[in-house]
Amino acid sequence: WLTDALTLYESLLLEFLKDFENAVAVVASQRHIRDLTEQHSMGLLDQRNLQQRCQALLLAQANDTAGVLAIVIADPQGRVIAASDDRYLSRDLGEHPEVRKGVSAPQIGEPLLLDRKYQALATGPIRSTKGTVTGVAIAVFDWTALVRVLMSPQRFGASGRVVIAARRGAAIDVLVPGTDGRLTDQVPPSASSVTGRAVLGERGFQETVDQEGREVLAAFQPVGRTHWGLVVKADSREVYRHVWRLKWTLVGSTLALLLLGVVLAHILARRIANPIARLTEQAERLSQGELSARVEPETHDEIGALAMCFNRMAETIADSHATLEEKVESRTRDLEKALAERTAAEQSLRRSQEQLQTAAKMEAVGTLSAGVAHHFSNMLQVLLGHAEALESAIPGEHLHRRSLDTIFRVAERASDLVRRLLRFSGRRADESLVVDVNAVVVETADMLHSFLPETVKFEVLTEPSPALVKANPRELEEVLVNLTINARDAMPAGGRLCVQVSGTTRAGVECVDISVSDSGCGMDAEAQRRLFEPFYTTKGPESGTGLGLAIVYGIVQRHSGSVTVASELGRGTCIRVALPRLIADKGGAGASTLTDDLPRPPIETLDREATILVVEDHEDLRDVLAQRLIDHGYHAIEASTAEQALSIAGAWADPIQLLITDVTLPGRSGFDLASTLRGSRPDLAVIYMTGHSRQVDALAPEDDCQLQLVKPFRLSELLGAIRRLLNRRPRSG
Fold first, then answer.
1. Domain map (residue ranges) of the chain
2. According to the model, what pLDDT value does residue 580 have?
3. Pairing of strands 611-615, 658-662
4. What CATH topology corresponds to 2-147?
5. Rounded to an integer, what distance in angstroms lies between the CA atom of residue 511 and that of residue 524?
6. How far, rounded to the nearest angstrom, does the alpha carbon of residue 126 sit from its chain's CA centroid?
7. Is 670 left (phi over 0), alpha (psi -120 to 50) or beta?
8. SS3 660
9. Residue 180: pLDDT band by 50, 70, 90 thresholds?
């Protein structure tokens, strides 16, 4: 009750004050007034002209706001410089706190006695376009108008009172109600008085004795942004009478509702509860799986309709249960089939992922192998160059001639190892021939048999007709050797090893199948999954490197073939290599085989001189090449980079007949170097040196004036290539 009254009076008070705050805000925000006050503050406009140019605006705003006596403008010190009413001109209002504080923010002041009337001031700053304060807008309103609003006919109780108080120094002014047209005397602030607590910003309820000696119950709170406190109070006895009336009214209503509830509950128990209990019992039976549960309708009201609905529901459930069982059985079969298909698909995906991982590892190892082979081939080339220099200097019957032959033999084997590393990495494109797999297997059988102990029974089975494929015979031999060695190591106690050639069809393509099977220890699933990973081995560190089957995998992949493994622990392993078959009448020549013991061609010399530019970043290799060319009558110019070679060629006045360059050079490649030089020397012959034959095949196709040499090569090969190119080259002059 008091809270509602407190809220009501606060809203009346704030609404009354809001009009004056709005009037101040309108005046302070008008561009015309802001410009005039700024000019006055700068000394550009005197007070008389300011009053003439502002009075009409101020008067119009004062007339538009009820309760406003005047609207004035003061300078920042509080002296009035313009007003809607001339009586306020030149007054000094700076002594009032609300005027001083109004320089920084809007303020509502306490009532003060002006012109024998209680008036109050609403203030707000006037700012220039730059944000500086050039004046204060002040609305002077009649305080008695506020008193009339708040002292209108009582809004709560016969003893209700409203008090507005404000703090002034060490005392509290009671602003409302006034006494005989003046403010009530000041009273000292007290922490226990409701007016003091409200002025100090507190809110709440308190039972106290007012200045008239009455026991009152008061509600209090501060008023908005002002420094006032609002108190509503009423005689305690009147408040408690009102409370007791409400209390007894509530008690009576509660008792009546309770009695009515008891009567209605009794009626509902008889008409509703019993049929519902029977429905509940049958529903419980139905929930436990008794699909025959039914309810006999006893009435034709809602309960009876509910019983009939229950019976229809029970019949529907029984029918649905039978249908559901049929569907579940059918769906179960479908799910089992789908699960089997998904399992197969997941296994296929897993195999594909494993193959992809294996291919990625093979690519990484291939890159490493290519790098090793590249540097190794350069060192071998240096070794062969110096060995050939010694060969030409040492007579055939010399004591160290045998050691020199051993050096050549070992160098040839090392060269073969480099070629194998490059084949493994896919950087060497050895020539593929049409070969009969039957012939390769038969020719390799003796060598394979030499790897096996006497405890292993070795068997070779071939097709009666030619099994033609396009492949490199040496690589096929390498596949057979690696598979045979792995099969042998799986049978330490002996057993049976069979190499078989047969025909098969895979993915609609006719293939030649090479299978190597053993009766050894077999492999588990993990070993089969990682079988072709580089460096993976189940043998000890002294028995294997883990590269044999990785090389097999790389060779088969390059021949567009596939490798499959079937193994069982304790029963043996079978590895099948499938290669695309060639039709006999389209295959051309039959099988072709290679031998490692090729005779070294003799060293040829030329009877005419030529200038040769040798470009090689490997210093030792460049030196040995240049020296050997000089030894055979040529004039050799050396360069370590393409840029150095271009600089030398540009400064060389005489003709340069031949360029010998490495493909891989720092900065620019040998191809770029040759192309640039041939732009100014179109008859320049070129020999490309590379450890990767595919580099030259792909980027520098042969023509009449260029050839390739794959490292390591013999001096005789280099001299032969030089002779061929110089003979093809048109003679100048």
1. 2-147, 433-586, 611-728
2. 93
3. parallel
4. Beta-Lactamase (3.30.450)
5. 28
6. 55
7. alpha
8. strand
9. very low
Position 445 pLDDT exceeds 90: no
Separation between Cα atoms, residue 579 and residue 576, nearest integer Å: 10
Q: Where are the beta strands (DSSP E) in 210-353?
A: 215-222, 228-235
What is the per-residue pLDDT across 572-615, written as a single tens digit (0 to 9) for each? 999 999 999 987 544 343 333 333 333 333 434 443 578 999 99
CB 496 within 8 A of CB 525: no
Please count the CA atoms within 13 angstroms of the CA of 374 that sit on its side-chain side. Answer: 20
**Residue 514 corresponds to which tokens in the numbers above?**
């090479």
Task: Please give the residue that has the higher pLDDT: either 26 or 600.
Answer: 26
- Which of these, 261, 214, 259, lies nearest to 238 by C-alpha position? 214
* 611-728 CATH pick, 3.30.1330.40, 2.40.160.50, 3.40.50.2300, 3.40.50.300: 3.40.50.2300
Phi-psi group of 641: left, alpha or beta (phi > 0 → left; psi -120 to 50 → alpha; rest → beta): beta
Distances 544 to 66, 149, 515, 686 between C-alpha atoms, Å = 108, 108, 22, 44
| Contact criterion met (CB below 8 Å) for 146 and 121 | no
User: The domain 433-586: what is its CATH number?
Assistant: 3.30.565.10
Q: What is the structure's pLDDT at 412?
A: 73
Angle between helices 302-393 and 548-558 (to 10 degrees): 100
CB atoms within 10 A of CB 584: 14
Distance CA 559, CA 552 (A): 11
CA distance 226 to 488: 104
CA neighbours within 13 Å on the CB side: how many for 699? 16
Nearest C-alpha neighbor of 367 from the set 419, 425, 430, 429: 425
Distance (Å, whole) CA 720 – CA 724 = 6
d(CA 539, CA 140): 107
In the structure encoding, which two tokens stand for residue 215, read together?
């026991």
Q: What's the rounded Cα separation, in Å, for the pair 668 and 111?
A: 96
Vertex 20 angle, CA 19 and 23, to 5°: 90
- The Cβ of residue 472 has, within 10 Å, a number of other Cβ atoms equal to 20
Query: Residue 26 is which amino acid?
Result: V
Residue 638 CB contacts under 8 Å (≥ 6 apart), including other chains: 614, 622, 623, 626
C-alpha to C-alpha distance for 299 and 57, rounded to whole angstroms: 85
- Would you call the peptide bond into 177 cis, given omega within 30 degrees of 0 as the criterion? yes
Helix, strand, coil % in the chain, rounded to nearest 5: 50, 20, 30
Q: What is the pLDDT of residue 179?
A: 39
For the stretch 127-131, contacts whose Cβ atoms lie closer than 8 Å and that sit 24 or more positions apart, written own/partner, are 127/28, 127/34, 128/34, 128/37, 128/38, 128/41, 129/34, 129/38
| Integer Cα distance of 433 and 406 in angstroms | 32
Helix (H) or strand (E) holding 468: strand 468-471
Which of 144, 154, 153 shows the shortest CA–CA distance to 176? 144
The mean pLDDT value of the chain amounts to 79
pLDDT tier at 515, thresholds 50, 70, 90: very high
Residues 561/545, Cβ–Cβ less than 8 Å: no
Q: Phi/psi at 113 (nearest 5 deg)?
A: -90, 110
**Residue 547 DSSP class:** -
